[in-house]
Amino acid sequence: MFPLIFFLCSFLSLFLLPPSNIAAVSNHNKYLKLPLLRKSPFPSPTQALALDTRRLHFLSLRRKPIPFVKSPVVSGAASGSGQYFVDLRIGQPPQSLLLIADTGSDLVWVKCSACRNCSHHSPATVFFPRHSSTFSPAHCYDPVCRLVPKPDRAPICNHTRIHSTCHYEYGYADGSLTSGLFARETTSLKTSSGKEARLKSVAFGCGFRISGQSVSGTSFNGANGVMGLGRGPISFASQLGRRFGNKFSYCLMDYTLSPPPTSYLIIGNGGDGVSKLFFTPLLTNPLSPTFYYVKLKSVFVNGAKLRIDPSIWEIDDSGNGGTVVDSGTTLAFLAEPAYRSVIAAVRRRVKLPIADALTPGFDLCVNVSGVTKPEKILPRLKFEFSGGAVFVPPPRNYFIETEEQIQCLAIQSVDPKVGFSVIGNLMQQGFLFEFDRDRSRLGFSRRGCALP
């Protein structure tokens, strides 16, 4: 039943939300290449773990069989620690805002203010719809309004009134809340070529009421909103996808380097020039249609395949389990039985002394004092996915410095009965990841990030 519901939802969404109109973009532009930004100071590994755990707990609460018209579009971005930002210019004349790029959510939303005299607001902190000539609130009977959650006390929709606007509201696990008007607006994106792409009628949430730590505290890291890149019909990737090949990709570079190299979000066929992409099918979880699920089959340590029951990686009838690729989670999380096998195998093969004291939250730490290149002797992990795709990240993607001369295994356990395994953004660093939504597949390549 659930697969049928999900198919119908996806099919109907093609008609409920037409693709955004593109203006001021050359026909030679096959894709948009947008710089991804990081903001310092970065959280410590222990802080990152706490924020990741909170995020995954929140995301796990969303797996419920909910009818299509009440489909949740709650963002998990605010509960994450590994945020990458996109500079989005919205309105005419454009107002610049930093949004968290998040593959774990669908909704695009920004902080808004209805002020007329806005001198008490700092520039580039909120969107002022009154200052834009192209701001257009969605009507409550507009089909797109059916795709967002409504306040408990939403006004009754009056089909005859022009100003019966579409209200939305959604909350977080800690009680944080954002609500406002669902609207359409012209947005402008700065691309790496220096040209500006202007996109008309992008649907987004204009949040006038924002409260709580998840959307205004330190975990939100000064963001002005969220750019949802999930699989739902109102995500940024879905709205622009059909104009640009219905795919997007990104390269997340090591932000601890100085100076940090630039990471990119690419909307469209930017990864087509990569000589060798390894592909694995994207799976559908009817109870979590937003997330990008893949099937992890095997884990290897120094070439030795670990004995892990294949059922550990399956999605059960309640929507639990499985493996998600997520840009908003920093660390990697493995189903608890698999995690035990991995940490035991790594511990047996590590050739460095175990640290005298563990960094809080981490189960395996080593002392790298006097070792020039510890990555040369740390155990090597390899992940095999469905379809034969093999992912071999370097040790720096899963061993991180938590204290001076101490490195810890940046993999955590998760209960598969209430959660799912996660390939976080640290594990993804240095690889091009391509989300091909038309072919329902995920591609990755170590070489892709070397593209100009």
UniProtKB/TrEMBL annotation:
GO term, biological process aspect, one: xylan catabolic process
GO molecular function: aspartic-type endopeptidase activity; hydrolase activity, acting on glycosyl bonds
Alphabetical list of InterPro entries matching this protein: Aspartic_peptidase_A1 (IPR001461), Pepsin-like_plant (IPR034161), PEPTIDASE_A1 (IPR033121), Peptidase_aspartic_dom_sf (IPR021109), Plant_Aspart_Prot_A1 (IPR051708), TAXi_C (IPR032799), TAXi_N (IPR032861)
Signal peptide range: 1-24
Organism annotation: Arabidopsis thaliana x Arabidopsis arenosa
Family: Belongs to the peptidase A1 family.
Active site: D102, D326
Transmembrane segments: none
The protein's name: Xylanase inhibitor N-terminal
PROSITE patterns linked to this entry: PEPTIDASE_A1
Domain Peptidase A1 residue range list: 84-445
Entry-linked Pfam families: TAXi_C, TAXi_N
Domain of life: Eukaryota
Keywords noted in UniProt: Aspartyl protease, Carbohydrate metabolism, Glycoprotein, Glycosidase, Hydrolase, Polysaccharide degradation, Protease, Signal, Xylan degradation
